[in-house]
Amino acid sequence: MRQYRQNTAEGAFSILTLDDDPIMTSTIQAYFQRSGYRVDVENDPQQAIERIRRGHYDILLLDFLMTPICGDQVVEQIRQFNHDIFIILLTGHKSMAPPIKTIRALDIQGYYEKSDRFDQLELLVESCVKSIRQMRTIRSYKDGLSAIMDSLPLIHDLRSMEHITDSILHTASSLLPCANVVLTLDAEHYSPAFPSETGARFSSRAAGDGFSALTSQEAEDLMAQLEGKSSLVLDRQLVLPLVDGEQHQIGLLTILLREPPKYDQIQLMEVFSRQASSAICNARLHALVQEKNHKLDQAYSQLQSGYLEMISTMRRVVDAKDAYTRGHSDRVSFYALQIARKLGRDPAYCERVRVAGLFHDVGKLSIPDDILLKNGKLTAQEYDVIKTHPRNGAELLSVISQFRPILPAILSHHERIDGCGYPDGLQGEDIPEEARIIAVADTFDAMTSDRQYRKSLSFQQAMEELERSKGTQLDAHITEVFQSLALDPEFWTKMREEIQDRAPRQAVPDFSSSTGGPA
Q1: 408 class by beta-carbon count within 10 Å (0-12 exposed, 13-18 middle, 19+ buried)
Q2: 20 to 30 Å CA-CA from 298: which of 105, 136, 219, 391?
C-alpha cells in the first residue's frame, strides 16, 4: 500500500461501488477497505441511485454495462440531484466505454478498464481524493470568510466593549473546532474592556470549557514571541495578536483547538484577528467620538479597509501559488483601468474595472497545483479544470455584497468575441464590456510574461498577436484603444509610478528610435 493511503481515514472518504456482478463489488470493497476507505456495495442500479439520494458518498465506482440500465444512464439520473460526487466508470474493455463527449457532459472523472489488478483504479481514486480534499479546504475557507462577513455587523456595531468582545469570542468559537477561546487586553496600551479588580496589567474574557485567564507573565511572554508575527502555533494552541492602527499590540486572542491547526485555518483566523483588532479599536474610537467627533470617520475607514483586506488576502494566495504569474493581476488591473479611462467611462465604472482586474484570477485558488503549475502542455481534461476558474472566482466573491458588481467581469473574462470562449460561450456584445476590457489586458500581459511552460513574446510580437485577435478572440475597438495607449511612453512611466512594479522588460517598447515608436 502506498503511504498516500494512510491518511484517507482522516477525511472520512466514502465509496459506493455499483456492479451487477456481486463478485466484482465484493472484490473492490475488500481492496479499498484495506486502504482505509469506507466502502458500501450495491448490485442494483436503481437502489444505488436511491442510496446516493438519501446518504452521502464522495466517490462512485460503477460498471458501464449493467441491467436494467447502463452506467451512463445511472450517472445521468444522479447528476439531476448531485453534482458533487466524483464518478469513475468501470468497463470490461476500453472500446466499450462511452464517448468522451458523454463523459464530459455527465461530469465523469474517468474510467477504468477492468483487470485482475486495481493499480490504475487506485490512482484514479487517489486523484479524486486529492481534489475532494482541496475542494473541502476551499469550501471551508469560503464558509469561514462568509461567517466572518456575517459577524462584521455584530463586532463593528460600536456598542459597549463587553458586547463586542462577546461577539468576537462567539464568532471565533464558531469558526474552528475549539475547546475554548480567551481574549486578553493589555491596559498599558489600551484601556481594558473588563477592568480587573486587582489592578493587574492584563484582563481576560473567555468562552468555552477548561480555560484559564493568562497571567501577566504568560501574556508578556506570548506578546514577545508574537512580535512581528501574524500568528503563533503552540501544539494545539493558536495565538493571534490584537493590534491597533499603529501596530502596537493591545492584546491576544488565544484559541485551544481539539487538534493542531491546519494552514488554511491559520490563514482564516489571521484575517479574523485583524477584523477583531479593528472592531476593538473602532469601539474605543467611538467612545472617544463622544468627546472628539472627528474620530468617527477613522472608525468607518478602518471598517471599509477590513473588507478589502479580506479579498486582497485571497488574491495574494493566488499569486503565491505561482511565482511565474506574480504581479500579473496588478498589471492587468492597471492596463484595464487605463483602457476604461480612455474609453471615457465614469469613475464608478473605472473603479469596477480596476478591482475586477485585481481579482480576475481569484478562482485559481480551486485549481490543483499539479495542473496550475504544470511544466508542459495540459491535457484536455486538465484544461477543462483550468476553465473552471472564472466561475469558481465569481462564486467565491459572490458572498461579499460589495464585490457583486464586478462578478460579470470575473465570470466572462475568458469569453471570446466569436463565441468560442468559456464558461458560457458568449459572443460579441453579449459579453459584458468590463469583461472584454479585462480580456485584452489579460491577453497582452500573458503574452509578455514568462511562464514555466514557455518564454514570453516581445512587445512587437505581442502587438501583432493582438492585431490578429481582433474580432475573433478580442473586441476590435477595445484592442485598438489599448494599442494606442501602449505606444505612448507616458503610459509605461505612469505604470511604474502607480503600481511600483516594473513591467516585464519585454513588454515595454523601445522609444529610443527617432520616430518615437518601438525600435
Answers
A1: middle
A2: 219
DSSP letters spanning 293-318: TTHHHHHHHHHHHHHHHHHHHHHHHH
Q: Over the stretch 157-181, which tens digit does the pLDDT of each residue have?
A: 666 777 778 888 888 888 888 888 8
Write down the H helix ranges in 242-346.
263-289, 295-321, 328-342
CA dist 517 and 519 (Å) reads: 6
Q: Quick one: 156-311 is in which CATH superfamily?
A: GAF domain (3.30.450.40)
Instruction: Please give the Cα distance from 8 to 126 (Å, whole number).
Output: 9
Helix (H, G, I), strand (E, B) or coil at 24: helix
* Nearest to 87, CA basis, from 45, 59, 119, 124: 59
pLDDT recorded at residue 9: 43
The domain locations on the chain are: 3-134, 156-311, 322-507
Q: And the C-alpha cell for 411?
A: 465570470
Whole-angstrom distance, CA of residue 9 vs CA of residue 5: 8
Reported CATH class of domain 3-134: alpha beta
Give 497: exposed, middle or buried? Use CB within 10 Å, 0-12, 13-18, 19+. Answer: exposed
Is pTM beyond 0.70 here?
no
Residues 240-265: what's their mean pLDDT? 86
